[in-house]
Design goal:
- The protein is of the alpha/beta class.
- The chain has a single domain, classed as 3-Layer(aba) Sandwich (Rossmann fold).
- It is about 40% helix and about 20% strand.
- The strands form 2 sheets. The protein has a 3-stranded parallel beta sheet with strand order 1-2-3.
- The longest helix has 17 residues.
- The termini are far apart.
Length: about 160
């Protein structure tokens, strides 16, 4: 088993698809650091601290090998600073591949000592995206099969406040 990996993302909100990838990464790495990115160019529904708290709640039962953290800036800088040599990314559909491939090659160019691996989620989660779920929630859909309970509750609260 490799020592540790980072699974970065916005997690706005965390979905069962994210949890599935974390569990898959746990089978390969001793420690999986799930790091919430603070991206000022991407408008998030949830605040930075809300996203971190939802992830902590959603991963509470996954054991001490899962660590929730956050970062600003480049993920490769975070990885180098924390002596992490692997970035985990999820590929749901073919449409994800081009963007993820570009990002992986850019990260490789920025830091040749950090490698990206791609994991595919279970089929039941392969079409889930946070963006799609926020839209469905705004139209009143039941998202209990897509989101952990805390994320469902917070999403309903956030949308009813708008």
């Amino acid at each position: 088993m490799c020592q540790k990996a980072i699974y970065p993302g916005s997690f706005d909100p965390v979905t069962y698809g994210h949890i599935d990838l974390i569990e898959r990464a746990q089978k390969i790495f001793d420690t999986v650091i799930v790091a919430v990115a603070r991206n000022s160019r991407k408008e998030s529904l949830f605040s930075f601290s809300e996203r971190v708290e939802m992830l902590k709640s959603a991963t509470a039962g996954l054991g001490e090998g899962v660590i929730i953290d956050h970062f600003d800036g480049l993920v490769v800088d975070y990885a180098r600073k924390h002596n992490i040599s692997v970035i985990v990314r999820g590929l749901r559909m073919v449409s994800d591949f081009e963007y993820e491939f570009q990002m992986a090659l850019t990260n490789r160019k920025l830091s040749q000592d950090v490698e990206t691996i791609f994991l595919m989620p279970s089929e039941q989660y392969s079409y889930i995206s946070s963006r799609l779920l926020k839209e469905a929630a705004s139209l009143g859909a039941d998202l209990s099969s897509f989101l952990p309970p805390e994320a469902q509750r917070k999403l309903k609260e956030k949308l009813s406040a708008k």
